Amino acid sequence: MLVTTALITGLGLGSMYGLLALGFHVTYSVSATVNFAQGSSMMLGAVFAYVFTVRLGLPLFASVLISLSLCAAYGALVELLAVRPFARRGSNAWLMATVALGIVADNTVLFTFGKEPRGFQMAWAQGGVDVAGVHVSYLQIVIPAVGLLFAFLLSFFSNKTRQGKAMLAVVQNPEAARLMGINVPVVICGAYALSTAFAGAGGILIAPLFNVNADMGTVFGLKAFAVAILGGIGSAWGVMLAGLLFGVVEALITSFLGSTYTQILTFALVIVALALKPNGLFGKAEVKKV
Amino acid sequence: MFKRIVFLVVGILAAFPAFSQETIKIGLVTALSGQSAAAGEAITRGLQIAIDELNTAGGVLGRKFELVRRDDEATPAKGVLAARELVFKEKVTVLFGGLDTPVSVAIVPIMNEAKVPFMGPWAAGTPITKNGANPNFVFRVSAVDEIVDKAMLQYAQKNFNTKKPGMILINNPWGQSNEAGLKAALGAKGITAAGIEKFEGSDVDVVPQLTRLKAAGADTLFLVGNVGPSAQVVKSLDRMGWKVPIVSHWGPAGGRFTELAGPSAPSVHFVQTYSFFGNQRPVGTKVLKMLMAKYPDIKSAGDVTAAVGVANAYDAMHLVALAIKSAGSTDGEKLREGFYKIGSYDGLIKSYKSPFTPDNHDAINENDYVWTQFINNEILPVGMKK
Question: Who among A116, A255, A259 is closest to B35 (CB)?
Fold first, then answer.
């Protein structure tokens, strides 16, 4: 019973971390930069969907489409305002600039959306099925399914398609990629839009299980970054699997040792894993050919 | 010409006593944004209603009251900064605290050092008033964890025949304070807890912790957490399909619990110091009328969200005014003594008689608690409406 419960909880939460961490993977793969405020992007997805569905009364499907488009637009804005100006000059200030932009987003939502957490119920997400005597809500099945689907699509796109390979070429040698006809700025900007849309999808999926509020993404963003590094940020499957592993380990520790030890042991294990495999569990050592 | 103008200005000022006397500044450091914002607004409303009433009656010592608020964002560091500003720059006579025990605990040493009275209208952490300082400048008109914990056990035993309770507590100083209080309450009755589990405010799924408690044979849950986290516990119980009595501290009262927790929200029975529902004494009827007149969003008792914040702050402000009157001064040290000299006051929560003594800085005790539940969006005494 304890194991089944822990596995179900862990896989649901883990795929959430993985989904967010995929966003780190996408931008890192094409530009060697990331949006450190990925948690804010997740929050935006949930807030947009809540506003369009609950306050404006749009059908859920339309709300999700509009919300993800707005998240993508926000991602492009992050790249234009907080990454490009610094990365272009070889500065690492984008680290701080993305965090700052996330704080701006969180506070803008706080003062426009409202201060209170709001409940976002979706009728279809209320039900569930019984697995081995444990009740599993539909969302706990949908979230891992969406996460794995995104990981598969990303992996397929970057390894099997011409456009995907072109995107990966950008990070290896931007100048050569430009000479080969690849529009480098557009590719990087697109990667940020995709990354933020992933996070937004995560936010929409988690909202019915949690609630919608301006700082809902902070802890998720932090754990997702740990997951991205743990999995090996260059591998889509690695990141997703690390997310699932992180979630399951977290839930197993809580179930068997008690919640007092969850954070201590989970993050200690991350350090041990990285000490043993510095490039992440599923990552490869970067080889720079000169 | 210049002399004429000076005489004119002095003459005009003398004609208006309000200008000739400085106001008595009452500071408030509470969450005005974030998850606890509704609680901050409730405290503000309670204080403002009392201040309006006192000012209409002419104020105290010939001076009127003025409320100065700062947002602590439920963060101790920001609360400390705001408290310093209000005490040392704004020179407030009394500082009121907010909902969050960690913030109040961080502010307490500053107030004892500055010798300015600190009044708690909400945060229930035991160490806020029992802080070990001598002299102690901290007073409270609110529930106290160690007393609430005894009351929770008493209520559970009486209503659910509880023999083996499990604790599910938020992982912060408020949770710790209640863990100690609940252990002591259980120990005093020779009961052992089935288990003690902690959870984070950001936890989406509390099923693993609850599964441990269920496996350990818990027959009742003692819940301590603010509105959002408490709702996560209820939703997790729903997912597990575990129907178990839940006796809670007052966290659910701080926001839209029914919206967040879903259809099982009424299963949580939680403590309050006041309810605007049911038979009201004349003070209750008067305060509700004043609230409806001042705040257009309040059309009935059900719209007074976080009634405890309003009620505690209202009574606390009147007690502060009585303390200033008794002390005959706004000097911090004299005012501290003034709190001990308050005789009787017919307040909203109860009729107070010598509410503060050198050994007791808490004006509310277990006899003043009301047990409530959310029915739709209203906090009603348990069993009043199904």
Answer: A116
Q: Judge whether B227 is closer than 8 Å to chain A, CB to CB.
A: yes
C-alpha A122, offset from chain centre: 22
3-state DSSP call for residue A127? Answer: coil
Contact B145, B126 (CB under 8 A): yes
Residues 6+ apart with CB under 8 A from B277: B301, B302, B378, B379, B380, B381, B384
Chain A: give the shortest CA distance to residue B252, in Å. 12
pLDDT at B253: 84
Q: What is the CATH number of domain A2-113+131-276?
A: 1.10.3470
Q: How far is CA A67 from the centre of its chain?
A: 16
Q: Which domains does chain B have, with CATH numbers?
A: 16-143+282-366 (3.40.50.2300), 146-272 (3.40.50.2300)
pTM recorded for the entire structure: 0.81
Q: Which residues of A touch B199 (CB under 8 A)?
A: 259
Cα dist from A102 to A47, A108, B331, whole Å: 14, 10, 45
pLDDT tens-digit profile, chain A (290 residues):
778 888 888 998 899 899 999 999 999 988 889 999 999 999 999 999 999 999 999 999 999 999 999 999 999 999 999 999 999 898 999 999 999 999 999 989 988 887 778 999 887 777 788 877 777 888 888 888 998 998 899 888 888 888 788 777 777 777 787 888 888 889 899 999 999 999 999 999 999 889 999 889 988 999 999 999 999 998 889 999 999 999 999 999 988 888 778 888 988 998 999 899 888 888 777 665 55
Number of cross-chain residue pairs from A and B with Cβ atoms under 8 Å apart: 93
* CB–CB contact B239 A128 (8 Å): yes
A273: distance to nearest CA of chain B, Å? Answer: 24
| Chain A CB within 8 Å of residue B262 CB | yes
Answer whether residue B20 shows pLDDT above 50.
no
Structural domain boundaries in chain A: 2-113+131-276
> Are A209 and B32 a contacting pair at CB < 8 A?
no
A288 to chain B, closest Cα gap in Å: 40
Minimum-distance CB partner of A211 among B200, B208, B228? B228
In angstroms, the CA B29 to CA B105 distance is: 13
Condensed to tens digits (0 to 9), the pLDDT of residues B133-178 reads 999 999 999 999 999 999 999 999 999 999 999 999 999 888 988 9
- CA of B51: how far to CAs of A8, B44, B92, B301, in Å? 53, 10, 14, 21
Answer yes or no: are the C-beta atoms of B119 and B93 closer than 8 Å. Answer: no
Contacts of A16 in chain B (CB under 8 A): 204
- To the nearest whole Å, the CA of A255 is away from the closest chain B CA by 5
CB A216 within 8 A of CB A265: no
